[in-house]
Design brief:
Number of strands: 10
Number of domains: 1
Order of helices and strands: EEEHEHEHEHEHEHHEHHEHH
Distance between the termini: 16 Å
Strand content: 15-25%
Bound molecules: NADPH dihydro-nicotinamide-adenine-dinucleotide phosphate
CATH class: Alpha Beta
Strand order of the largest sheet: 3-4-5-6-7-8-9-10
CATH architecture: Alpha-Beta Barrel
Number of helices: 11
CATH topology: TIM Barrel
Helix content: 25-40%
Radius of gyration: 18 Å
Shape: globular
């Protein structure tokens, strides 16, 4: 599995998303068996980065992830766990309480990465970062990041964070290139910030174009794999597809190792990558 190396930290190019694990906007315990099986197969396949949020299934995604991590017996140090604080919890006290609650549901002493899930019109970013910096200082969070932030909010976050902002998690896929067009990807690449591409399959709406199908054939890969490889071949980009299906999970993790030629990258509509390790 290829990694993105930033400030000495190695992040797997492909991680595992957990939206829909344990329910949707709220918990749905009827899907627990299916959700746990998906998490355990991902762990067996070698996924080490898991992306969740206090919002997912009303906290139940974190609970199931915690249970799967314990059931797998995998060492905590070998895993990279990301979770997110919701926009309605961005005042000082709520950030601290939100993180404590997430740690409790996950059953871990610390998370590797803690993100502001979405900006809110009401948030006072200075106050939020006062709490986030404290969480890092207290050892409850290893790294800080943001999600769905535009350029000016990301710049402000970098000023307020006492540790480097590790990532901005935003939608990016073959079909949705808004964050390339608006300069976010270039900004992240120029400033040692990882861009975590969420919904790499447009939350299931992905359909292969003719070009994608042609490229896939040349690599004996599936179009879904080429869509992920297109992301993984770009410097500073990692991605977090979600799948309940072990065969799809396996395809997705393998896609990280597909090296696309500069010609194929260009054909897929991207300036050739200059390399992924630095
Ligand atoms: P994805 O874009 O990852 O798409 C998931 C869908 O793709 C599922 O229907 C899945 O079906 C299908 N799929 C996955 N792999 C394959 C494959 N190899 N072949 C065919 N179909 C496949 O959706 P998400 O929106 O869930 O995004 C991924 C993660 O990003 C989320 O789980 C979450 O962690 C994060 N996210 C973050 C957001 C934020 O605001 N920060 C917002 C949205 C997502 P199947 O199960 O059958 O494989």
């Amino acid at each position: 599995m290829k990694h993105e190396i930033v400030n000495g930290l190695e992040l797997p190019k492909v991680g595992f998303g957990t939206w829909k694990i344990g329910g949707g906007a709220s918990a749905d315990h009827r899907s627990d068996k299916k959700s746990l099986a998906a998490l355990l197969s991902a762990l067996e396949l070698g996924y080490t980065h898991f992306d969740t949020a206090e919002m997912y299934a009303g906290g139940h995604a974190e609970e199931l992830l915690g249970q799967a991590l314990r059931d797998s017996g995998i060492r905590r140090e070998g895993l990279f766990i990301t979770t997110k604080v919701s926009p309605e919890h961005l005042d000082y006290t709520s950030v601290l309480a939100g993180c404590e609650a997430s740690l409790g549901r996950l059953g871990v002493e610390y998370v590797d990465l803690y993100l502001i899930h979405w900006p809110s019109r009401l948030m006072k970013l200075e106050e939020s970062f006062r709490a986030l910096n404290k969480l890092v200082g207290d050892g409850k969070v290893r790294h800080l990041g943001v999600s769905n932030f535009g350029l000016s909010l990301l710049e402000r976050s970098r000023e307020l964070s006492e540790t480097p902002i590790l990532t901005n998690q935003v939608p990016l896929s073959m079909l949705d290139r808004k964050y390339v067009r608006n300069g976010m990807l270039a900004y992240c690449q120029a400033n040692a910030i990882v861009l975590t591409a969420y919904s790499p399959f447009e939350a299931g709406k992905f359909r292969a174009s003719r070009v994608l199908a042609d490229v896939a054939k040349r690599y004996s890969a599936t179009p879904h794999q080429i869509a992920l490889a297109w992301l993984c071949n770009q410097p500073r980009v990692i991605t977090i597809p979600m799948s309940f299906d072990a065969a799809h999970q396996s395809e997705n993790i393998d896609a990280a190792d597909i090296s696309l030629s500069p010609q194929d990258l260009a054909q897929l509509g991207q300036t050739p990558a200059s390399g992924t390790r630095q």
